[in-house]
């Protein structure tokens, strides 16, 4: 990580050139071409525009003031780019300093602050499927990154455990359940009867050429929906029988969820679903009315917005019958989190289809005086090649099935490598238990990394082969690079001395810079809610590790042996830490 001292120097130079501080400071960024130096500073362009001067003239005034032990050379390129080349001795010193830091030099920007990360959020009484994968992976990576940056982190699983779905489920339970099937597979049976209710009440789709229902069928569907609403109302009013069923459905659902989360290496600090806030919604609406934020419209209470993007999108906070909705619950959750945890930041991870919902929520919060940093970390949808997933169509891919397939494919790859060793006359390298452990780490890592290595805001078409790929920019490649380093360092049979690094070859220098930039990549991923920025960096780091390993003698490096062992050990630590920040389980042998 570029030292705070250099950042402070450039900030001071910028402020001296712009005493009023009206021009936003721009920090350095890595150059795209190493031939142009290590870092580039483009502040001259901003300042020149504000002062109506030539960018190059401004750059000339700035560059003469850049005097720091870390900077070996500062020069101007083109119309006003300032390129900085760092000093090799100082880079080696920074590597030693980073090696001594448990946080790998990651700035503790969250020290003394709390962040709430709201992610995953499956619905009760349904299996977790690949539609839940992105929120869980991205949210957990952001949780880990915030924690590493010094925040007190609260991971909140805001599950769907209240509302009209339970009226439907209770009706279906009372009329269609199969007790033997439920005992054998509780969630499977709950899902079956819930789907059956949807099929029994589904309206024909004229666009698909479906004929309208007969009056008798239409009346039957309306009657079923009315029965479900009645069961929902009974639940909300505290009916003992319905509450007992609700608790039963909750228990079996949480057991199912926790089994999946255990495989994903994911834990939550709290699980507070919609039901946790059901008794707060009346107070939420009363406060919105009192503050003049909510207004009555056709018997309901709504909030209108002045923001241009929301002006034509009023939101209901209380229905005509006095019932609350998801917006009311979300406002209650916001208030609870602020009052009980006093966070400086709240990050909510959902798919992009909910952007309007959270823009509305955040706008209401601002009108209520909320000053907390509110972030909607939205991501693109995951669809199948044939289109959207649908329980009714039966094309849902369960997460447990995806994980089982990933681990099975990885196990086959492990067996293939063992067979190749046998063909070369080598003894068996791994026990069956070790093979199982490697297959689990590689298979589960492949799924997570395939998800996190993509820009989160892109839509993704699911592909078994791409999701479970074992070659290229994949988790297996990164995990193998790490395990290979561990083996090399073990063969050295001597501790690596962080102070021994001397950067002689250009490949060594490139690797050192990549190691030092690991916390920069992590910080960029945290601030932008884009774990792929860290994944991209780790892939680059692995490539540089392998080039040094392949092109330069290490164990037989003579006078450079100690230096290269120390450099590779620093790289090993950076790679391991970065992978763990993304939530991958790192293994020492493959």
Q: In brief, what are we looking at here?
A:
The protein is an alpha/beta fold and 590 residues long.
Describe this structure in words.
The structure is a single chain. 53% of the residues lie in helices and 10% in strands. The chain is of the alpha/beta class. Among the domains are: 4-86, Arginyl tRNA synthetase N-terminal domain (Gyrase A, domain 2), CATH 3.30.1360.70; 399-581, Orthogonal Bundle (Isoleucyl-tRNA Synthetase, Domain 1). Helix 12 crosses helix 13 (355-367). The protein is globular and about 90 Å long. The two termini are 30 Å apart.
Give a topology summary.
Layout lengths: L3 H14 L11 E2 L8 E3 L1 H9 L3 H9 L7 E7 L3 E6 L1 H12 L14 E5 L14 H16 L3 E5 L7 H13 L2 H6 L1 H16 L13 H22 L3 H25 L16 H10 L3 E4 L2 E4 L11 E4 L7 H16 L3 E7 L3 H13 L5 E7 L2 E2 L15 H25 L8 H21 L7 E2 L2 H4 L7 H18 L13 H11 L1 H11 L3 H20 L9 H21 L9
Parallel strand pairs: 5-6, 5-10, 10-11, 12-13
Antiparallel strand pairs: 1-2, 2-4, 3-4, 7-8, 8-9
